[in-house]
Amino acid sequence: MKPTQTPENPFTKRREPFNFMLWLGIAGSVLAFLVLLGAYLLRKTRPNWSDVPLPDLFWISTAAITLSSFTLHAANRALRTELFPHYRVLISTTLGLGILFVVLQLLGWKELIDAGISTTNNSSVGFIYLISGLHILHILGGIAVLGWAFYQSLKNFSYVDSFVFSVNPPNQLKIKLITVYWHFVDVLWLGLFGFLLLQRA
């Protein structure tokens, strides 16, 4: 007679700590942005509020960050199928698109300043700086870990080294966490950008 196994409690079972910490951080970030957007809506109900047009470069930066999620997805697929040269190209492309996003966002700020729009004459622009600036900090964290992944792809250049790197469980976990985080900051920006657009509709 086979011994009966007690089903494992999903709330008490052991979880991978780094994965748990990442999702905890994501939940904290979502909460922080929700509070910020709530403050935006509350402030908008007060007198002397005027929504300024979003910089045109924000559209291009949005396209760049969206494309970067596709290149990162393709990079993961290339790593799993041992197409290591493709992986190096795709991970470097993702890194480059992330850097491009930050540059375009900062140039978007400059676009507002050149148009004579500042926090002194329009309070709504302060929220644009705050929302996009806080998101840029999240992106910079992603750029740092993507930089690590790109460095490892160059360090492990030969097929054997690349293969050993790709099948190493800690490395697989790191790439997985990087991917989850990067997709998160991508979706987060799409949500923030969509919110700002709706406020101007």
List keywords for this structure.
201 residues, mainly alpha, Four Helix Bundle (Hemerythrin (Met), subunit A), 6 helices
Description:
The protein has 201 residues and is mostly helical. The protein has a single domain, classed as Cytochrome c oxidase, subunit III, four-helix bundle (Four Helix Bundle (Hemerythrin (Met), subunit A), Up-down Bundle), CATH 1.20.120. 77% of the residues lie in helices and 0% in strands. It has six helices and no strands. It has helices spanning 17-44, 57-80, 84-114, 123-155, 159-167, 169-198. α1 (17-44) runs parallel beside α6 (169-198), α2 (57-80) runs antiparallel to α3 (84-114) and α2 (57-80) packs antiparallel against α6 (169-198).
